[in-house]
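During the second half of the funding period, the structural biology subgroup turned its attention to how the target accommodates small molecules. The most pressing case was 2-acetamido-2-deoxy-beta-D-glucopyranose, which had performed well in the primary screen but for which no bound structure existed. We therefore specified the complex as follows and requested a full 3D prediction, including the ligand pose.
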Amino acid sequence: KIRDKRPFVSRHLVMIRVLLLVALLAVAEARRPLFFNGRPKGGFVNGAIQRSQAAADLFPGQTLSNFTQKLDHFNPIDTGRWDQRVYYNPSYADKDKSSGQDIIFLMVGGEGEEPPKWSGDPKVQIMQYAATYGAVVYDLEHRFFGMSRPINDMKTESLRLLTTQQALADLAYFITVTNQKMGYSNPKWITFGGSYPAQLAAKMRSKYPELVAAAVGSSAPLHLQLDTYGYAEGVQQVLEATPITNSQGKTCPDLVREAFDKMQQLSLTREGRKTLNAQMHLDPPFDDNTNKHDIINMFANIYGTFQGMIQYTYDGRSEASKYNTTAAELCRIMNQEGKDPVDNVWDLNVYSAAVYGEELTSFANNYTAMIEEVKQTDWDLLGEDGASDRGWTWICCNELGAFQTTDSDTVFGSVLPMGYFFDMCTDMFGSEINATYVRDNNSASQVYYGGEDYFDATNVILPSGMFDPWHMISYFNTDESKNLITLKIEGAAHCSDMYPEYDGEPKALPAARQRIREFLTGIVYDADHPQKSASSLSLTVLIAGIVAKLLM
Ligand SMILES: *[C@@H]1O[C@H](CO)[C@@H](O)[C@H](O)[C@H]1NC(C)=O
Ligand SMILES: *[C@@H]1O[C@H](CO)[C@@H](O)[C@H](O)[C@H]1NC(C)=O
Ligand SMILES: *[C@@H]1O[C@H](CO)[C@@H](O)[C@H](O)[C@H]1NC(C)=O
Ligand SMILES: *[C@@H]1O[C@H](CO)[C@@H](O)[C@H](O)[C@H]1NC(C)=O
Ligand SMILES: *[C@@H]1O[C@H](CO)[C@@H](O)[C@H](O)[C@H]1NC(C)=O
């Protein structure tokens, strides 16, 4: 009898657990903003995606499998292994007959589940390049994101294994093993990435130049700046470049400044906060127990709406980024004359949520509740975006910084101080991860990777959109002698060069993609020995000089 009952009981338990999970996930959706610590749902370049487990989700020619990855590359006695997901697509493979070389593109996964598109969709630029150069394409999911889980949970002690150094070593080990397994002769690996993974793609050239021939890093925030106040300046630049017609001659930045001034003033008094409760539909409303974190959290989420629209403005990433979440639409809504500036901000939030398919009726405003969601350490309780938000914030607290404050003079006032992010690191990861830790680790990472002005690599191209606020911490020191090329793409946003082309896209994009192709042509066809051709050129110059001297 007991036996008969068990399945029934356990089935019930499973059902309760599933319901609980669904309820928790629903809550999670409600409390976290669409844009958390700079990261939109789905990650910086991917957009919202569907889990790809089924072969049906894959593109023709593409496979998804597991690579047996090392748990800890820097502990020689550690024998831990785990399954890292990797996409593989040999559709365009066309071994270059002239040199007998294998051209291999490696898309570097980032702070979210890796979607099939980068190694499957023929319209994205990496696949367009793969078709031209006959490249095999791999795409390796980043450790701790998507289904690539090195360890059972996301406790802080487990996250010690989530570092950029481990991620780079994952890529290096993957390349080494794949070269052997596939028997690649004279392989030429080229790493690609957008946003955070663009840093990794580029750093593969500085840290593992023997394995990787070249890197294409789109919108790579190579300066590991702790307090990234410049991001807000970047947003402001886009607003300044967006013309509007206003009967009082106000500009778009004027209108944004007016709204933020007003909201900041209101936040200072109890009466003012009541007004904000109503105008911003705050849930829960500010009351006598409201603390500074709740107030800053409201500003962080409002600022997030501005970030989410500007960062992808006019991108070919999705229909929304082409036509809806654009600087022009943002300025149009902020310029509804005759409406209160704070009401315009509310309208902007409603509009931006609607574009992502969500009907916004209230604005989540409980810092503690938000932190509780991303403080979970269980993969299932966190859910895909919760886990990615937690992992991404860990990388920022532990190494990168990249905290998007309003610590310089911009239209956003001073609503988002660095201290808020220090507290967030501690609240999410424990008392040990305090301001001293975050600052020291960020400094150590800058030293390890070369700091602000120093990036020592050859054969790297770094395109950046100038409408991408992250360009403020991109790297722009072109050095032709090292074939280290940086591109400023006017009017383009975050990673714009990676997406499919579309009619009406920013005018500077085709030329930028053409420059990337020239770079790739150089690598694929005659950059086998780039130093050699450079030095033989200087030898010629030297000989010519000597001859000239002798003739005089
Ligand atoms: C990859 O590994 C994960 C986790 O170990 C497993 O759930 C999944 O089924 C594996 N996928 C394939 C294609 O082997
Ligand atoms: C997005 O823009 C397109 C083109 O202007 C428009 O047809 C569509 O209704 C907009 N969608 C939303 C959600 O505003
Ligand atoms: C905020 O969330 C916390 C944690 O869930 C909860 O204890 C608290 O009551 C909430 N505050 C308000 C004002 O609802
Ligand atoms: C952070 O914690 C360390 C010890 O873990 C301590 O020495 C340091 O003073 C703390 N820093 C701050 C800003 O609290
Ligand atoms: C961060 O700091 C801790 C404690 O000092 C140290 O063990 C760890 O190696 C640091 N991590 C990085 C990536 O610098």
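Two results from this model are relevant to the next phase. Residues 2-31 form the longest helix (30 residues). The two ends are 110 Å apart (CA to CA).
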